[in-house]
Design goal:
The protein is an alpha+beta fold. The protein is built from five helices and four strands, in the order ααααββββα. Strand 1 (92-95) and strand 2 (100-105) form a beta hairpin.
Length: 159
Amino acid sequence: MGTPVTEAFSTAQACRVVGVTYRQIDYWAHSRLVTPSLQEAAGSGTRRRYSFADLVELRVVKKLIDAGVDLRRVRHALEALRSQGENLATLTLLSDGSSIYACRCPEEVVDVLRRGQGVFGLALGPVLEQVRGTVVALQPPPRREEGPLPRRRSTSPGG
């Protein structure tokens, strides 16, 4: 996965990395959606310090909101994932705009907003190939015409 990043990031740096405004990141910190894990603001003159993992969470929030997921649902999903001790860096999150699904591996997709209820996923490419193979197997082999085979002409000189 590369070299781990352990640097602390200011709010301004976090805004640039994540692609959100100061006002958004400030609201998310005040509302406890994503708080800086290294240092929270403790009054006038103090600054928040975000870790790399915090930046990942912030980017996840932004991506989900950009995909049309309601902030309330994003908050609920993050709370559920945190309570399960999930590492966001190891998950693939999917959304249809109304729900959020966590995919830990190709065989497991979980509806995060429904307390981890399993979701049935179906990759259509393999199904297509299975049906194609079955159809081909059902077809009778091509029939050979009865009768003598045509003679081949000799291409050797004198022959």
